[in-house]
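REVIEWER CHECKLIST
Item 1: Sequence provided? yes
Item 2: Single chain? yes
Item 3: Sequence as submitted:
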Amino acid sequence: MLMTMLLVSAVLAEGLGLNDKIINWVGKKYGVEAKQRAENWRSLLETELILEKDKLTRVNNFFNEIPYRDDFENWDNKDYWATPIEMIGVNAADCEDYAIAKYFSLRDMGVSSEKLRITYVKAIEINQAHMVLAYYQKPDAIPLILDNLKPDIRSADKRNDLVPVYSFNAEGLWLAVNRGSGKRLGNASKVKLWSDLREKMKKELSQ
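Item 4: Structure as written out by the authors:
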């Protein structure tokens, strides 16, 4: 059991690690169509792409095709962060779910976590909290924003409709400063829903 959990932790550090056993489990839990979605997802992750820009585009487009549904309707919960497998299983998501699934998929495709931040923002046009995935080609670069509200990937300086609040990844938590990398606040474990999510993923991947 200890070895299994260590292996799962290693997978979470690098990405997802979908295999036949997990995909078959998805089919049993969520149905035949969900299993096909999981297989399509694995095909995406295994696509050999050299340029990170192409990886961003493919992942962004794949998940943005999943229908939006808020947490109350989807999970009977005010604020629930679904795992990527849950998202694929029920074929529905809200903003956090899109950003999380894109993050772990890109990690699985070899994009460094240092370049990726799940970012909590205020979406001005809809006047509510929102979450996106930010990609930093270099530490001091203006990030590219992967978003379900606007499907085309744009740099943060072209997204004046978003006001960044904080961001995080597997390694840390940052307070947003304008549209740059921000001030580090410590470990991402301070974000409880993120810690809960990773525990759920460990259980799923140990099926």
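Item 5: Key structural point noted by reviewer: The beta strands are 116-123, 128-135, 144-146, 154-155, 162-168, 173-175, 183-186.
Item 6: Recommendation: ____
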